[in-house]
């Protein structure tokens, strides 16, 4: 799982792929791609070198060719300064920057204005005209000038008592950046409402639980990573369902707003939601400013420690697998991948138990040395929650490319 990747079509029509990551994945090997080995946290240095043209190998020139793409995903957002460096690299090279989210609904949430600094249609909350357009569509005099709160800020405000009530829809606490802090905030909430499909850590704490429809029971729209709308109708009709009283979450929120008084949402069904989004349309003005987060100093591991980069397994311990033991049984074993040199230094044996949270089932989490990995290591998020302390040394070397399949793994600047 790479933090960033770049691709372009060669003169012969073949796709050239470069992956900025700790090790070569199966996908990179299958595509004949090139690994740009980066110790965890050094991704901004790599991207800066690519932007300045000082990185070794063919990636520097490939990024400057017609049709080049820079692909970033969830892990890039978790590395301080990586997204800022990715934007700078795209600007310097002329490559197109592409974000591919992990969750199916993330692109749609951005378009709906779920981020604290956005309004629907990608409108920046700080732009006066964007606020005027949205206020007119919503039938209110004006909107607040300041951005809203992100998830961490909402939970922080609940924990301190600044917010007395909380509505949570379909959130798995273990999937949040700081699950322990989230649990403390949920426990501190004066009144907690949960919109859910199955019991969870949130429903255990909720004052009111409102069951909502699953995706197959309601119509809606997904946006793919390109922003293309993919509307769908309910796969299961009311006469095919056992619980016909269960309503879509949009309808539940509409009724909650009516019960609270004040101006109603006037969004009783998906047709009304789509109509409002169509009236607003996409924002035609200037977008929000580019990220400007500087990279942080890479942690210097001490004796018995290692820096691990994390990624999500395609099937992890997600609650949507509840009741489908056959699907859950196909999960891959969670492993911490180390280069042979790092594994030898730390005394971790191949396929030896490395510690960490075990996936549901009887298979243990394990450590595996990886012949095409740089220093440091990569571990699934569920394994990183509890990890054995390993040692990680990185000599001061420059950045260079590595072709999967060779025995020597170049070490990178830390």
Describe the structure.
The chain is of the alpha/beta class and 414 residues long. The protein is 28% helix and 16% strand. It is globular, with a radius of gyration of 24 Å. Mean pLDDT is 81; it is low at 352-375 and 382-414.
Helix content: 25-40%
Strand percentage = 15-25%
Given as residue ranges, the uncertain stretches (5+ residues, pLDDT < 50) are: 352-375, 382-414
The rounded Rg comes to 24 Å
Treating each run of at least 4 consecutive H or I residues as one helix, how many helices? Answer: 15
Q: Can you tell me the overall shape?
A: globular
Structural class: alpha/beta
Tell how many strands the DSSP assignment holds: 16
Separation, N- and C-terminal Cα atoms = 20 Å
The CATH topology of the domain at 149-280 is: Rossmann fold
The strand order across the widest sheet is: 3-2-1-4-5
Quote the average pLDDT. 81
In brief:
The chain has 414 residues and is α/β, with parallel strands linked by helices. It has helices at 26-30, 43-52, 59-63, 74-78, 82-93, 106-112, 128-138, 151-159, 179-188, 201-205, 249-260, 270-280, 325-328, 340-346, 381-384; strands spanning 4-9, 15-21, 34-37, 69-72, 96-99, 118-119, 123-124, 165-169, 191-196, 208-211, 220-223, 229-232, 308-311, 335-338, 366-369, 377-380. The longest helix has 12 residues, at 82-93.
